[in-house]
Amino acid sequence: MPLSQKPKWLKMEMPGTGHYPELKRLLKEQNLNTVCTSARCPNIGECWSRRTATFMILGTRCSRNCRFCAIDHGHPDPPDAGEPLRVAQAVQMLELRYAVVTSVTRDDLSDGGAGHFNATIHAIRRLNPQCRVEVLIPDMQGDAQSLDLLLEACPDVFNHNLETVQRLYSTVRPQADFNRSLKVLHYASAKGFITKSGMMLGLGETREEVLDAAKALRSVGCRILTLGQYLAPSLEHLPVMRYLQPVEFAQLRQQCLRLGFDYVHAGPMVRSSYHAAELSGLEKV
What we know:
Strand content: 15-25%
Oligomer: single chain
CATH architecture: Alpha-Beta Barrel
Largest sheet: 8 strands, mixed
CATH class: Alpha Beta
Helix content: 25-40%
CATH superfamily: Aldolase class I
Radius of gyration: 18 Å
Shape: globular
């Protein structure tokens, strides 16, 4: 049965402290979007206060309509050719050593947005040669040519979220495919890239299903895993079926580490880009 009251352990930092106003102003001045705002991330207060954000390129409207996601859907605008440079300039202004770039799904584009990712990674590196870049990508229809175009820019971490267990895909992600997502991760892993994925819990999955999905991720070479509590963005989205206790996340973390992941970050407030630099193993922040 759907739950309406959040448990006491789901606490988040209120926006407005630390560097939050500075980052908000910069993003507005640079005309940039973040998944933090578009997806209504509960960690926005904490992350922005530390001058970290996940840049969201290719607009704010998604060509798909996943039932868990707060991002607007509909016909997206054409790609903004000036956006890669503005992202790179924002990274420079924020003096980031680790940048995370994601996007809405762009099934309307022949390359799924891969060229725009490529341009953004190269722009960041031109202005910020010491900055590591993690990309969190949609599945790009599993198209090898699109994936090759993105991978040509050599992201330091290649992240694609599985989001949920296989049984729930038709409900949670009706326009996506569990096995296609695994193939996308395998494609990048086989080429030597560090791959990462994440899942939301509390949608009705069982622990066995979570571990089966984690095993599937390891079988395709995925090295980093995030597990977090699903929180319904509104009453129009899928309801929360269960709130996992922090101890359950701790247990799942240990079980997944035993499967061979390099890093597992699991907790009620964990999201796919949360503390991304620390999880990558590439940067000491």
